[in-house]
Amino acid sequence: MWRPLVIVPLILLSLLGSSSAEVSRLNRLSESPVVLPNVANQSALQLGASRVTAGYYKLAHTHEASMFYLYVKARASQPGKQPVVLWMTGGPGCSSELAFFYENGPYHITEDLGLELSEYGWDVNNNMIYVDQPINTGFSYSEDDRDRIYNEKGVAADMLDFLHAFFEAHPELEDNPLYITGESYGGHYVPAVSYAIFKHNQNITSNTKINLKGLAVGNGLTDPGIQYGAYADFALQNGLIGRTTRNGIKA
């Protein structure tokens, strides 16, 4: 099970075609089509070569930080009319390529290390953005330690900056409903980013608003002090442990 985790970075690095030094000089969003090898039944689901793109965005209010993302156009017949879903894997520090290849993305990795289209990918009906964040997660990077993020306020500021750049690069999507989603430590990221968008929309003119419509968190870690205390009761109610064990844990 560990081998696919090794090949995913190798695949993506070979396809981007830009060195870290080249990307670090960019002062704008740079995006290129991605053609992944060994994809079975690609034509059956009309997955064109330009439907998946990868990019870097040099964050405006940092020293040298560049944020990596994957953008997947919806498989629907008119992707320009479908919602936009931003996905952030948790950790903190887990790359969103985990979701792209293993969870809700357009592909999954087969036993022989090939790729197959997933019939359950969220991209069936949504335009998906998978972001590696905070900086120094996955392929997002900075050579300046001052760009490290240690709190949700910093995460939200960087993601708001990125979203503005993304919608400027894709104006056909800027009026579409946007949903902020994530898992695990996304229980911190998703509310923080959503709140930053909400506050931004309250303070600016209508033509620069982000069309936030909702948020969703799966298996979210929000407050360990509260959540961990409920694990024993959950395990008891679902028949995983007996009452004696439960009482011992809660003691």
UniProtKB/TrEMBL annotation:
GO molecular function, one term: serine-type carboxypeptidase activity
TM spans (from-to): none
Keyword entries, A-Z: Carboxypeptidase, Glycoprotein, Hydrolase, Protease, Signal
A UniProt-annotated Pfam family: Peptidase_S10
Protein family per UniProt: Belongs to the peptidase S10 family.
Signal peptide: 1-21
Protein's organism: Apatococcus fuscideae
EC numbers on record: 3.4.16.-
Protein name: Carboxypeptidase
One record GO biological process: proteolysis
Keyword check for Protease: yes
